Structure formats: structure tokens, C-alpha cells
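TL;DR need C-alpha cells for one chain.
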Amino acid sequence: MLSKLKRNKHQQHLAQLPKLSQSVDDVEFFYAPADFRQALLQKIAEATRRICIVALYLEQDDGGKSILTALYDALRRRPELEVTVLVDWHRAQRGRIGAEASDTNADWYHRLAQANPGIIIPVYGVPINTREALGVLHYKGFIIDDSVLYSGASLNDVYLHQHEKYRYDRYQLIRNPQLADIMYGWIQRYLINGSAVHRLDIAERPKSPEIKNEIRLYRQSLRNAIYRFTGNAGNNELSVTPLVGLGKTSPLNKTITHLMPCTRHKLTICTPYFNLPAGLVRNVIQLLRDGKQVEIIVGDKTANDFYIPEDQPFKIIGALPYLYEINLRRFLSRLQYYMNNGQLVVRLWKDNDNSYHLKGIWVDDEWMLLTGNNLNPRAWRLDLENAILIHDPRHQLAAQREHEQSLIRKHTTVVRHYRDLQSIAEYPIKVRKLIRRLRRIRIDKVISRIL
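>> reply
TL;DR here they are.
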């Protein structure tokens, strides 16, 4: 059993977090990608003071164009608006995986800037490391006036359900002037004014190798870049706490590590890519040993955004969904006893050809973590991540929380036995050969650290 001393340590950490008082009427949930798109476009159109869009990428497709066009239209109507966009530096200057980088998102930002003379929307490229594989801008949030529209989604056709297919995520709108100001001030100080951050909407931008040393120093500075604010809420009222972090020992990672053991009855985790850091695996196992319930909702391998159907040409990147399934199968093989007794419930999400990008943590009916963090080694060590922790001790958000969870579960099936998941021997021959080759040269463990 988890000792009372250890449990008190975890509870004490949560109790001591600075918290901002939150009105229940100013928290709104959206339950589908198309609803999120409409809410974002409406908030942009209604903005009177500021709009700050932060995403991994803003894509040059119909979905991305609708957002950037809306930003230009908003600034045209209200020239006094302060409008900024921030995206990952590396991601913006390459094509999609497997495609040529002949016409990148950055090129598109520049063309739009030239087509709208006198209307300036700076698009900042934020480099988190010298290479995209070693860290990206995974900070999330759209700050519009005094509201934060929070989602793990980036901005393109599939995330916005612009056409037939969608990528499922979570979507919450929190109206809170202090929260919006804290996040906006941090973005201004550490991202917009970051030493290695450069505009992407202009022609003169440096090449990544030219700013390699700047990026390294900038990454070091981000490790110490935390939110600094004084809370105004107690532990017996609805509140929100913004969290940010880069690196294994970040405040965000520490809070997640303390949050999970505070479970009294049930822990629910959502992640699209099952590859939990070792510390979180230990937390889950300890909760099960203590008699608690754990529910994990993960995307089926065919709902992974890297999945390639067997009738299409195979690319190396298409092995990733199978590597995640291998991780899940290995994890469940250790814990079959708890699946048998009903303590551990694992659900696979699949809805036709749509994909799953949903992440978050729910502890009992009291704590809810909104985050873009995939709860994997990459998020834990390499990417710049953030989150909003909602404390709801009076269960004022119960109806919205339960409705969101019921919709998440709608397209899931429960894994009854670890053998319900395919073994390597059942994979397509090209996937099978690649995975066995990786294992022979022992590079699969290295890959798992950056997945």
C-alpha cells in the first residue's frame, strides 16, 4: 500500500499549487472538431483587443487558410487589434513527412503577408531544438481577449474537420482574465521575444544551421521559464492552474507525477500514442496494487495519424503505430490479472478512417488536466509542453466532464486480454521485417525515447 506519508506528499504538492478562482459559467466544453472550428472562428471575429494563436503548425490547406483568413479579416475590421501567431520553426519550413519542401507553410505565410499590404500579422517560428526530432513547440492555447480556447489540436483540415475526415481531440474555452494575462505575458517574454525566435512571414529569415548556437542557448533558457503568479483561490473552490515546462524535471512533469498517486477511486488517462514514461508506469501499477481503478483510452493503431493502410506503399514512418501497439501489448501482458478483475480497463478508439489525438488526465471527480502532452518520453524530455489543471472539489463541472468522457468512450472497444492485440508475427511482412531489423541493432530503445 502507498504509505500515508507518501500520499500526503503528493496531496501537499497539489494543495500548494497557486490557483486562480474560476466561475463555472465561464468554462465551456466543445465536443467535436467542427464545433471547435466554429468556436475559434467566432472568437476571432468577436475579438476586440488581442488574438494570440499558438500551435505546432498552421497548415496551408482549407482548414488552415480559414483561420489565417479570419485573422486578416479581424485585423482589417479592427486595426487596433494585436494579432500574433506562433508555430514550430522546423515544422513550418518542411513539407509533410514524405513530401518535398518546395512550398512550405512559411512560404505561404510570406505570400499572404505580401498579398495584404498594411495589415501585419507576425508569424513567429519557435525553435525548441536544433532538429525537429529533438524537440518541438508543443505549447497549446489560443488567447483571445480574456479567454483561452485550449486544445491539443493543430490547425489544418483534419484537426478542424474541414472535409470528410477528422482528428479527435479535446476542446475547452475558459474565460478568465488572469489566466489569459499570465499565459499571454509568458508567451510575450519567452516565445515572441525569445533569442532564437524569428519571423516566418518575411523573406529574410535565417537558415537553421546559422542559428544553431542561438537555439541551444535558447533551449537552456526555456528550462527555467515558468509561470510566476500568485493564486487567489482556496482548495475548496473551482480553480485553474496554468503549467508549463521543458525537460524531465519541469513543473508540469512534477505536477503530473504528483497528480496520479492522489487518486482515491479512479484514474483515467487518454493518450494517442501509448508509450508512458517509466515513472508514470510505476504510478499506474502502484494504484492497481492499492486497489484503485485505472482506465486508459488509447487510439487503435489504425487511428494513428502515421498509420498506412496495407494497400498503400509502405514508408518507414508507417511502422510507428505498430511500435506503440507493441508497447501496449507488453504493458498489458504484465497486468492481465488487473484486467481480469476489472480494476484495469483499456479501451481502443477507432471510428472508420478518422484519427485520434486526444490526451488528458482525470483523477476521481476532482481533478482534470487539459494538455497537449502525449504522456510519452518525447513529451517528458524533448518538447515544450503546457497544461491547465482544473480543480473541481464541488463537482460543478460534473455534467460537462461526464458528457465529454461518454463521447470519448463512444467509439471504443475494451481490450479483454493482451492477446486481443496483434503480435509481431501477425503484422504485415514489411513492418515485421523492419521491427526485427531494428531490434537486432537495438535501436528500438533509442526510437522509443523520441516517440
